[in-house]
Design brief:
With 206 residues, the protein is α+β, with helices and mostly antiparallel strands. It is built from eight helices and four strands, in the order βαβαββαααααα. Strands 2-1-3-4 form a four-stranded mixed β-sheet, with helices on one face. The chain starts with a strand and ends in a 5-residue tail after the last helix.
Length: 206
């Protein structure tokens, strides 16, 4: 079984690539140079009309977009590989909660800050959108930090893809995230023997 992952270093393809490494899957990595506009290639636009990475082709040819959805699918497709707690357990419920929370809050806040022009038709409003994104990121991180007091990880006692996803999002944060519980997770992801090298390749370690 071979997966094909379209991505870019430092992008949302990181947790997906990390998940595939964790399960030892065969994967063909297609690294795009977004600055050169590789995502505008007609062949890729046919795969993802949003012209965004990551995009994942499953072994049976099924296309997936949205990094959080990919992470959840890979965890379901490879049970017992340490990507997420067992389905149906309270820990798995926490895993799902935080994956969706982060995708709709932290990820969106990062996008609002770094791609503010997408959120307004008035160029004069760009700075306001950026400020709103930074404020929302801080608020969402505070909620995550408070929840981690019962940790040490988002789903409970064991690291999961939710923690890998969190590490990426806080590395993108407009302002440095110094909350101790979150910082501890970022450090543990970077030190993990499987996730760490992938984080380093994407510039998320150190």
């Amino acid at each position: 079984m071979t997966y094909k992952l379209y991505g870019n270093k430092g992008s949302g393809s990181f947790p997906v690539e990390a998940a595939l490494a964790k399960v030892g899957a065969k994967v063909e990595l297609v690294d795009f140079d977004l600055a050169k506009g590789d995502q505008n290639d007609p062949a890729f636009v046919a795969i993802n009309p949003m012209k965004q990475v990551p995009a994942l082709i499953l072994p049976d040819g099924t296309l997936m977009t949205e990094s959080a959805a990919m992470c959840i699918h890979l965890a379901d497709a490879h049970p017992g590989k340490g990507l997420a707690p067992a389905s149906g357990t309270p820990a798995h419920a926490r895993f799902l909660r935080w994956m969706v929370f982060m995708a709709t809050n932290l990820y969106e806040a990062d996008l609002r800050y770094f791609y503010a022009d997408r959120y307004t038709t008035d160029p004069a409003g760009v700075e306001g959108v950026k400020a709103s994104g930074a404020q929302h990121m801080a608020k969402a991180c505070a909620i995550v930090e408070a929840a981690l007091k019962d940790g040490p990880f988002l789903a409970g006692r064991d690291m999961s893809l939710a923690d890998v996803y969190l590490a990426m999002l806080v590395k993108w944060s407009p302002e440095p995230v110094t909350a101790p519980h979150i910082a501890a997770i970022v450090g543990k992801v970077a030190a993990d023997p499987v996730y760490g090298p992938v984080a380093k390749r994407h510039g998320f370690a150190g």
